[in-house]
Specification:
Length: about 450
């Protein structure tokens, strides 16, 4: 049957509309966002020369610029998705991948979240950059990167409902559930879930980052499991986010895998709370690790994980049990003054009441302060932990026995030897008076 002129026009209009609509990325299908040859489908903001294509890679190096995806996949408007990209950083490179953002001509993107790419960039001027690769920037930070410069790694970002997950080489590093009314302020006010496009960052002329095989999979809207639904904003979450936004390094550097705690449980808590852990092993005479080989095994067990590797040096004999080369495998070394031999040749562990000998309180305190100062002067440590601990027999007299003069001796030794002093939440040590004095000195 011959079509009427009206029918032909309608058919023509329908075909034209269908042709003009951007290609839609089907749910649960991976779609490439970069053809490996051109920047088709991408739009740079200021300083467009910062981005180039070389040997199948997008290379970001130059003055500040941001490369926004404006291609046909999902109409460059994504809500729930998985994004993967292969990334390689040069030393001291700084970059990031934004999501739920939108194009802007200049400046740092104001809308959406940034996933940090930064293994070794130290910051500039007076600003010290501590947030490392995989950080959900200024919201849930990672302070120890599990990937290295000059080596390709895969970044995988998944957003589903209010849950944001970041994986590096299939290792989860962030698992954040955005609460109702999340705490945001200042330049981070736009770091909230919504919808939008992706953006690659060119940070500065000294930063070189290469990206390839950039792919996305659109995820359908679906009810969230009960344990991943957004929770109300509670005070500690607000404090964690506020500290993260202020570039305060949220790290617990004194964690032991004891009492049933496993590395998997510690990592799960770390990526939810945004606190990076330092996993420590007790090393010394009569402790689990007593030589270089044992220390090497411990270090190897944590390789490639987003944790600091710590050595807790026990007793005073440890300096003769381990080589400097083995010690250097750890990120830092800490010790306390809870194990030593007293002036009468009696070896004491201060937390063991039956091993403690206090013949005269004042003499004991002078000896203890002397031991602490000697440790800081002579042992290659970074942190003095369990600071100012006293045995149970005299612990109730802490404020009297820890005089200002004794505190000053310990603080001066720490400053002279560049040794940090732990603030220990378990023992509530050192005292507020000690902390205030240390800040003054």
């Amino acid at each position: 049957m011959k079509k009427s002129s009206f029918q032909s026009k309608v058919l023509c209009i329908v075909l034209m509309i269908g042709y003009a609509c951007p290609a839609k990325a089907a749910d649960n299908e991976w779609v490439s966002l970069f053809d490996g040859k051109t920047l088709d489908g991408w739009k740079a903001s200021e300083n467009q020369e910062t981005f180039s294509v070389y040997d199948g890679m997008i290379v970001a190096q130059g003055r500040r610029s941001h490369l926004f995806y404006v291609g046909p996949a999902a109409g460059h408007d994504f809500k729930n998705f998985e994004l993967t990209a292969e990334v390689q950083t040069a030393p001291k490179a700084n970059s990031g991948i934004y999501f739920h953002t939108r194009f802007q001509e200049t400046g740092w993107p104001e809308k959406g979240y940034e996933v940090q790419i930064n293994n070794t960039h130290p910051g500039s001027g007076s600003y010290r950059e501590l947030k490392r690769t995989g950080s959900l920037y200024a919201v849930r930070n990672v302070f120890k990167s599990p990937v290295k410069d000059n080596v390709w790694f895969t970044m995988h970002v998944k957003v589903e409902g209010r849950r944001i997950q970041v994986m590096l080489n299939d290792l989860p590093v962030v698992d954040y559930i955005e609460p109702d009314n999340p705490f945001r302020k200042g330049e981070n006010a736009g770091s909230v879930l919504s919808h939008g496009t992706f953006c690659l960052q060119g940070h500065d002329p000294d930063s070189k980052v290469c990206l390839r095989n950039i792919r996305v999979k659109v995820l359908p809207d679906a009810p969230m499991p009960e344990d991943t639904r957004p929770a109300p904003q509670i005070e500690y979450q607000k404090e964690i986010t506020a500290l993260g936004a202020a570039d305060f390094p949220l790290a617990d550097l004194h964690v032991h895998l004891k009492g049933g705690l496993t590395i998997d449980e510690a990592l799960a808590k770390s990526r939810r709370a945004g606190i990076t852990y330092g996993i420590a092993q007790n090393c010394g005479l009569g402790f689990p690790v007593t030589d270089d080989e044992g220390l090497k095994r411990f270090v190897k067990s944590l390789e490639g994980k987003p944790v600091f590797i710590a050595m807790q040096a026990e007793g005073r004999e440890w300096v003769n049990l381990f080589s400097r080369e083995a010690i250097a495998q750890c990120d830092y070394v800490f010790t306390d003054a809870m194990t030593f031999t007293d002036d009468k040749g009696r070896r004491m562990r201060l937390w063991m009441p039956n091993e403690v000998h206090v013949d005269d309180k004042q003499q004991f305190m002078e000896m203890l302060v002397g031991k602490i100062v000697t440790i800081m002067n002579d042992e290659p440590i970074n942190i003095y932990v369990n600071p100012t601990f006293l045995p149970a027999v005299i612990a109730k007299e802490y404020d009297t026995l820890w005089t200002r003069g004794r505190m000053e001796k310990v603080i001066r030794a720490a400053v002279a030897n560049n040794v940090a002093i732990e603030i220990n939440s378990r023992y509530k040590l050192p005292s507020p008076a000690f902390i205030k004095l240390a800040k003054q000195m």
